[in-house]
Amino acid sequence: MAGGWARDGAVQDQIDDSVADAVSAARASMPSGTGEPFCTLCGGDIPEGRRRALPGVRTCVTCQSGRDRPLAATFNRRGSKDSQLR
């Protein structure tokens, strides 16, 4: 349902464009080219299989796992309005 002067389906078009932009940004941030034989963080060997599977890889599995680890979750201690109304 579109409102005002917008045509039907305009909201879905915006969602599709947002998803396409996010995918493009993610692909642009992926490493490419020749990979490094040694990890740039710890200096350890990067196996040939990893370099073939991930072109442009610059870190070993151990260092990359540490970088990918999610940050500690934070809690909203004030709660939301919905939870206060129950």
Written overview of the protein:
The structure is a single chain. The two termini are 31 Å apart. The protein has helices at 10-29, 48-53, 61-68, 81-85. The mean pLDDT is 81. It has 4 helices and no strands. It has a domain at 31-68. The longest helix is centred in the N-terminal third of the chain and has 20 residues, at 10-29. Helices cover 45% and strands 0% of the residues. It has 86 residues and is mainly alpha-helical.
Task: Sum up the structure in keywords.
86 residues, 4 helices, flat
Short description:
Helix content is 45%, strand content 0%. With 86 residues, the chain is mostly helical.
SSE topology:
Layout: H1 10-29, H2 48-53, H3 61-68, H4 81-85
Overall average pLDDT: 81
Percentage beta strand: under 5%
Radius of gyration: 22 Å
Give the strand tally: 0
Largest sheet: none
Count of DSSP-assigned helices: 4
Specify the overall morphology. flat
Structural class computed from helices and strand pairing: mainly alpha
Distance between the termini: 31 Å
Uncertain runs are none
Helix-strand string? HHHH
Helix content: 40-55%
